[in-house]
Amino acid sequence: MTTYDHKNLDVMPTWIATVLWLGVATVVVSFLALAGVLIYYFAGVTPAIWLFWLALFAFPTGFILLLIALVGNVMVRRRRQRS
Q1: According to the model, what pLDDT value does residue 37 have?
Q2: Dihedrals phi, psi of 40, to nearest 5 degrees
Q3: Separation between Cα atoms, residue 58 and residue 49, nearest integer Å
Q4: d(C-alpha 60, C-alpha 29), whole Å
Q5: What distance in Å separates the CA atoms of residue 19 and residue 7, rounded to the nearest whole number?
Q6: DSSP letter at 53?
Q7: Is residue 65 a contact partner of residue 26, using CB atoms and an 8 Å limit?
Q8: What is the per-residue pLDDT for 64?
Q9: What is the C-alpha separation between 68 and 56, in angstroms, rounded?
Q10: Mean pLDDT across the stretch 19-33?
């Protein structure tokens, strides 16, 4: 009779949690920058150029970080299930 060594599959490694929170923070900052650009636009004021860049490029960067965390979590869970 074999004994099954129960491993908690729900415990997330630290690097995945870090990448996940960085992705979430980046997406939130990008959304706030987009809201700032729209507020400046409707107020008739020209916003700083960095606000455009932040609104444009931070969202895809944050989304990629979220996908990296998702794929990393899937790979870690599969490896734990097989061992």
Answers
A1: 94
A2: -60, -40
A3: 14
A4: 12
A5: 23
A6: H
A7: yes
A8: 97
A9: 20
A10: 96
Structure tokens at 14: 């630290």
Q: Is 70 exceeded by the pLDDT of residue 6?
A: no
Contacts of 37 (CB under 8 A, 6+ apart): 47, 51, 52, 55
- Alpha carbon 74 to chain centroid, angstroms: 15
pTM: 0.78
Name the one residue in this structure whose structure tokens are 């949690």: 17
Structure tokens given for 27:
């997406």
Q: How far apart are CA 53 and CA 68, in angstroms?
A: 22
Nearest to 70 by CA among 20, 9, 28: 20
Average pLDDT (1-10) is 58
pLDDT of residue 82: 83
Tokens 């809201």, residue located: 35
| Chain center to CA of 37 | 22
